[in-house]
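Course assignment 3, question 2. Fill in each field.
Student: A.L.
Task: Predict the tertiary structure for the chain below.
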Amino acid sequence: MSTLQKSLFLLAAMLLPLLVSSRNTPRKQLIDNGWTFNDKETVNLPHDWSAQLPIDRNAPAGNDGGYYPTGTGIYKKTINLNNDYKGRKLWLYFEGVYQDSEVKVNGIVAGGHPYGYSSFWCDITELVRTGNNEIVVKADNSRQKNCRWYSGSGIYRHVWLVTTDLVHIDMWGTAITTPDRNTVVVTTDVCNETDVDKEVEVTTTLSDGTCGKQTVVIPAKGKRQVVETLSVDNPRLWSPSSPELYTATVSLSTGDSVTETFGIRTIEYSADKGLLLNGNPLLLNGGCVHHDNGILGAAAFDKAEIRKVKLMKAAGYNAVRTSHNPPSECFLHACDSLGLLVIDEAFDGWREKKNDEDYHKLFDKWYDKDIEAMVRRDRNHPSIFCWSIGNEVIERKKIEVVTTAHRLRQAVHKWDTTRPVTSALAAWDDDWEIYDPLAAEMDITGYNYLIHKAATDHQRVPSRVMMQTESYPRDAFSNWAASTDHIYIIGDFVWTAIDYLGESGIGRYWYEGDPVGEHWERPLYPWHAAYCGDIDLTGRLKPIGHYRNMLWNGNHKLFMAVREPHGYAGKGKITAGMWAVHPTWESWNWEGWEGRDIDVVVYSRYPSVRLYLDDRLIGEKSTDRSSEFKAVFTIPYTAGTLKAAGIADGVEQEATVLATASEPYAIRMTADTRSIKAGCQDISFVRVEVIDRQGRPVPNASNLISFSIKGAGTIQAIGNADITDTTPFTSHSWKAWKGELLVALRSGDKAGTITLNATAKGLRGCSQRIKVTK
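Answer field:
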């Protein structure tokens, strides 16, 4: 870029609509749009530059980081303030910057935060002036390796400008608890930054009309806590099956106002009664997730975070563990509104390292601040039922770890005493019982992969409440059975619910001749993501996910898939790793295997199932608990139509079909929504399928598909579920994998129509139109 071009570029960026602070502006204003990045381009947040770059097998983040480049990025934005800002307080609120961030306003350091998963504030009141004000944010992700999974790089969550009066409600200053189903307690910290005492009327109003008022005096340069206890008649209780929400608005007579969403619900737990939500027994069918959004990288678009929760709910989950860091605010709002219980986790490790540059370097100086940020930010979410203070800490055998755990638990309870605290314990030592003092510091003990020790532990420590905070996908039945059969085990969280970037190769299976072993044993490029999820990177539920759903939920009773045979397509014997299951597909397309045996697996909650091939009965098998609710039919492969039928009382109750597709003929695109909002923040996810002449998906299709777009939006990313495919997410040409791709379309700043075109050699093309509204 020439000097002239660069100057014109920066001038254009400066001429973007400027923000004005006035007495009529809302308390929080989103300032995501119109940042310059590295003085080269204009970007709209959320932004993850790592996901925008090609994978590099020599990247410093290595196997853990998915071979994505990291480095340092500089973001700049100019805001314009008029004279109305004087005599007011101004903050910049960052929901997440990865990592080692530094924030400057008009050349002066305003703040920053080293831990990339914590939200933080910068008070900029004394740094701004009337007119233009330059904000510069440095995100430094060059210290590697600092994470065991893909972190992403940059300002990957929202940024807000917050404006208040000098007498105002503190940041994260409203806490709402529901000690019983008819009582709501709203505690508000009111600050006075003037030089004189201020008399203030504090009004608290619930969305059902319940209201309380108090007049209090806030001391000069001080703070006062105001507690309002309100009674609610006929409350609508929050639960995963009925996620009823209320709002509480706290208003000050001086003008400031904050509205918080909450739910009314009670949580109880004991080894005698298990977990009770609103007095009713509940088992946790949980999944662990990392924070990335697949093809979008770590960028926390609201639509992507909501979609993640919807995918989990559709897969039958009722709980999630945010491994191993606090999630985005939008993710938690989605859990609240859609009904997904949450373990909110602070960090991965403590004082001893898992990677050279990880949180162990920050722990002693920052753990108290990061726990405060997590708990104060998130404590009003009804979906959160438990806080987690760590995961598989390395120093678990040292006596001082008990003291550390105690201090962390105290740090949580300083801000919230209404929820239990856990930590995920893991050890493969013979002397497991030496961890009893550490487990005793937890209100609920988290077991990673060790629920087989639960029965003997219960005999030794009968009061212990347990949940499996990580489990192998292959153990779906035994983990369900353990939770169902033992009331002191309140549930299971599989590793993982959704495939994720980084921790490359966990969950992989390999063929004869491929590199052997697990993800921690050697670099596994081109593997650059995890394949242990029930849901793949494009959002498709795998057969193991259907099976887990069937075990835990009664509304999903029949599913059929086919195990890939050893030696298929000349690939040799298949070996599944520790977090893997044998590759099993929704496919009856096995060209070249005609006449050779293949396993058809039917998962069923009916007493028995029948299998048909082209309407010819193959056989009937029982599918009860003794068979782990599945039947395997070994038959010679013949193209045609498979049908599995669920049988009860000798009668076919339900059927599912797999038919052999013919040659690829066309492209089909289906958008999850055909109308999105202008403003550069909304996303439409478009599933792309290769189909035959009859409209059936072709499960083995690998056609190269090219995309073009015109109109009121852009292609944010494209990808497939093959975690060995290193095509950049920014490329507009991708090979289908298992006949599918996913495209993420991002709205522009104006209303209009997006037209996405897809073409491929030898296939009939397709167009998808998305409306963009103001």
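Instructor remarks: The first strand starts at residue 28 and ends at 30. Residues 1-18 have pLDDT under 50 and may be disordered.
Grade: pending
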